[in-house]
Amino acid sequence: MIYIVELSNRTKISIEVDELPNVLQGIKSGMPVIVRQGIFNPSFFVSIVEDKERLEELEELNDSIKEHSKRIELEPLIDIFKNVKLLK
User: Fold this and answer.
1) Helix then strand then coil, % of the chain, to nearest 5
2) Which residue positions in the chain have pLDDT lower than 50?
3) What is the pLDDT of residue 70?
4) Which residues, including other chains, have CB under 8 Å from residue 12's CB and lie 6 or more apart?
5) What integer pLDDT is reported at residue 57 of this predicted model?
6) Quick check: is 75 in a domain?
7) Beta strands in 17-88 (DSSP E)
């Protein structure tokens, strides 16, 4: 499952299910949250919703190749901080 963290400044950050515990812990603690697609201040947190747009795109792609037996899986999000040393 994939989700979007919505912030009060209208920023939306995509996350995957394995990032959800880290996001929830950051919201609970009030500490900045680092996910694959960005960093956000939990004081701007509004909601976490299902990323329906990415899921719909995936379903459309899968529908277009129905005649094939293999379904395409959603690509994992790219970790934009992979080669950056972050404070922890």
Assistant:
1) 35, 25, 40
2) none
3) 65
4) 4, 5, 6
5) 86
6) no
7) 33-35, 38-40, 45-50
Structure tokens at 37: 């697609």
Q: Measured at the alpha carbon of residue 45, what is the angle toward residues 41 and 50, in degrees to the nearest 5?
A: 125
What residues make up the domain containing 45? 2-64
* Residue 52, in any domain of the structure: yes
Environment class of residue 51 by beta-carbon count within 10 Å: exposed (0-12), middle (13-18) or buried (19+)? Answer: buried
CA 43: distance to chain centroid?
18
In a domain, 86, yes or no: no
CA angle 45, 50, 52 (to 5 degrees): 125
Q: What residue type is 28 in one-letter code?
A: K
The predicted model scores a pTM of 0.71
**Is there a domain that residue 70 lies in?**
no
Our count of domains for the chain comes to 1
Q: φ, ψ for residue 15 (rounded to 5)?
A: -135, 160
